[in-house]
Fold this protein.
Amino acid sequence: MQLTIGKIRGLAATSSQADAFTILAFDHRQSFARILTPRQGEAISHADIVAAKATVVEVLAPHTSGVLLDPEYSAAQSIASGALPGRTGLLVAIEETGYSGTAMARKSRLLSNWSVAKVKRMGADAVKLLIYYHPDAGELTECQERLTEEVVQDCRRYDIAFFLEAVSYSIDPKLDKSSAGFANRRPGLTRDIASRLGALGPDVLKLEFPVDIIKDPDEGNWARACEEVSKVAACPWVVLSAGVDFDLFKRQVEIACCSGASGYIAGRTVWKEGIPMPPLQRKEWLRTVASARLDQLAEIADRHARSWRDLFPGIENTASLGWLDSYSGIS
């Protein structure tokens, strides 16, 4: 698939000089509020969440190629306050937090009164959609794919980069996601998700690590599973952290990047321990511990990740003679 000028700019703005995605995931909403106030029943205001998020963005953004933010507490607020530097890429989530339906039949929804057009209008570099997805969920699978295709088309219309995040789940009541049975299926399931969703036209896939590393500690299997994802994905893919301990995620990033991934989008694994701390202690912890974590991950990705440009051959010819007459952008 040939990238258009706006998408090229968006991917360049959210990646490093080595063309690797070294992105901080910080679009958490309900889950962040729970971490911020771990004592049950403790009150927290919208302003409290905004302030805490601004601190995290201000401290950690300089250590990333981009920051993924939510539109409710952090995206516009981080721009207006100056917490997000202009040189740092901005990705904005478009989905409503959580899902409707049951744990075995999860349906994603777009956030009310929010759209690709508004993400573009605010000056962001990329749109992110999270869907809960299982390729064998029948009508629900088709529903999630239609939602994805809708966002794909909107991102093409407004010529903005599109990151699609897919989180798997079990559709078998007898097979919990944490079970050994699901772990056995996970490599093939992740490969199938990459194949099916990559074919729908996202610019980058944000995927779970394709192996349950607790149940399968063989790093050779980890590498082979990542290679299979790289073979079938029609676009660059990055690994998400899923809140695993930092040292484990660091190893996941290295193996994924050595096996064809184009970087990572890391969230709780970077910042989760520091959030419940008092504000001054939290800021110092972020400045020392969390920022060092991001630097370590970025060094790994810049050294080993596959350049996202490799997935788009001929990209340098996008602005060849006559491009101005054929360029449409927003219609």
Observations:
- The chain is about 45% helix and 15% strand.
- The beta strands are 21-26, 66-69, 89-93, 100-102, 105-107, 126-132, 161-167, 204-207, 237-240, 263-266.
